[in-house]
Amino acid sequence: EDKVVQSPLSLVVHEGDTVTLNCSYEVTNFRSLLWYKQEKKAPTFLFMLTSSGIEKKSGRLSSILDKKELFSILNITATQTGDSAIYLCAARGGSNYKLTFGKGTLLTVNP
Amino acid sequence: EAGVVQSPRYKIIEKKQPVAFWCNPISGHNTLYWYLQNLGQGPELLIRYENEEAVDDSQLPKDRFSAERLKGVDSTLKIQPAELGDSAVYLCASSGTFNTGELFFGEGSRLTVL
């Protein structure tokens, strides 16, 4: 059975801190790994990773994939209160290209 | 460009009652998904459509859940009869390519079964 595990499940930091969120996966016929940010509504797309070792960056957020060790990390530097959200990791694979989500990491950034 | 639209946003019903959720995907997106999200959990796939064909419904509890996507655009997800354990957020998503593209989510329909 395909599985995605995220850690930590929750994290509380102060504004300005740097955080690293982890995602490990076990997915047959792996195709890609996606990161989403979910506030009190729809998950919004952050990154899609398909190749190992190539960092994707958007402002203060960056992510990288390791296909050998089957994990990805999401880094957020100089955190702001607006970064408070649930961060979801999902791996696409299987015979149906199914997207399997992890439980998410709840990030709380305090002022 | 309009995003994925879902309705209703909130629904409260008593157990054993029926309920239906509606989704309008992004224009031109052939792939449509229904996900269930329980509190503290990631979304779980219920069904995926390619145009009007349900290509993955292996996780849909077919004894009480049904879905349709007539004409390959809008979709409806129905629960009949609802049970207490069905209380959750039902998310609809669409994508332009089914095997590689990112998913765009609607804001979800939050169901409370009393």
Beta fraction of the residues of chain B?
over 45%
Number of helices of chain A: 0
Number of helices of chain B: 0
Number of strands of chain A: 11
How would you characterize the overall build of this protein?
The complex is a heterodimer of chains A (111) and B (114). Chain A contains no helices and eleven strands. In chain A, 0% of the residues lie in helices and 59% in strands. Chain A is an all-beta fold and 111 residues long. The radius of gyration of chain A is 13 Å and the shape is globular. In chain A, the strands form two sheets. In chain A, strands 2, 4, 5, 9, 10 and 11 form a six-stranded mixed beta sheet that branches. The model of chain A has no long low-confidence stretch (mean pLDDT 94). With 114 residues, chain B is mostly beta strands. Chain B is 0% helix and 48% strand. Chain B is built from no helices and eleven strands. In chain B, strands 2, 4, 5, 6, 9, 10 and 11 form a seven-stranded mixed beta sheet that branches. In chain B, a hairpin with a 6-residue loop joins β7 (65-68) and β8 (75-79). Chain B is globular, with a radius of gyration of 13 Å. The termini of chain B are far apart. The interface between A and B is medium-sized, with 24 and 23 residues.
Outline:
The complex is a heterodimer of chains A (111) and B (114). Chain A is an all-beta fold and 111 residues long.
Q: What topology does this entry show?
A:
The complex is a heterodimer of chains A (111) and B (114).
Chain A: E1 3-7, E2 10-14, E3 19-26, E4 32-38, E5 44-49, E6 56-58, E7 61-66, E8 71-76, E9 85-93, E10 98-101, E11 105-110
Chain B: E1 5-7, E2 10-13, E3 19-24, E4 31-37, E5 44-50, E6 53-56, E7 65-68, E8 75-79, E9 88-95, E10 104-105, E11 109-113
Parallel strand pairs in B: 2-11
Antiparallel strand pairs in B: 1-3, 3-8, 4-5, 4-9, 5-6, 7-8, 9-10, 9-11
